[in-house]
Amino acid sequence: MTRLASLVLVVRDLERAMALYEQGLGFARVGEASDVPSLGARHVFLRAENCLLELLEPHDPDKPPGLFLRARGEGVFALELRVDDPARVRRDVSDAGVEVRGAAPGSEERWYVRPADAHGVLVQVAALEAPEPS
What is the pLDDT, as a whole number, of residue 108? Predict the structure, then answer.
């Protein structure tokens, strides 16, 4: 079983994006917007019934979200999938010739596939019962 747990969108204007997703589409804000120095961006989490949405507004053009915005414009930057057996899925992805990064093989921790290997999107994988990202 695989389910989509969260999406990360890179946006030019965080306030404008929050207006659309929160006020217009009914997502509920999870905390206040804050800076993420390691990403060179401000972010906010919004929750729908079946998914967590993170909006990222880059302010450092040399960090990954800023590079993404400059190269591609606004859009889906990353997604997180939850799976029932992350170790098996990791082996299957590796056996398919795709490089897996992150936790050690056999680990139940989060791991990921680089955008270069996942058709332009950072794909994070975690166990179904893993804690929500923060």
Answer: 59
